[in-house]
Design brief:
Length: 78
Amino acid sequence: MCTIDCSIKWILKEHRGGRSICRAIRLALCYTVYTICLARNAWTHDSEEVSPDSIITKVKLGTYRVLLRSFSHCRFDF
């Protein structure tokens, strides 16, 4: 999965349905795109450099936070 298009095609093909893990994977992709857009906008408009490690950390924390709030009744093994 080297591009967003490839990632979306993979998710649509392999992870359909309402299972909790499918929702978690879709959420992680959406949160990744959102975080990358925020970093790009910060770099473009504010000349702030954002390291890849900080983007990864933000994606992980944000995804876990939403998962815990939304699916507190489910168990996720990552």
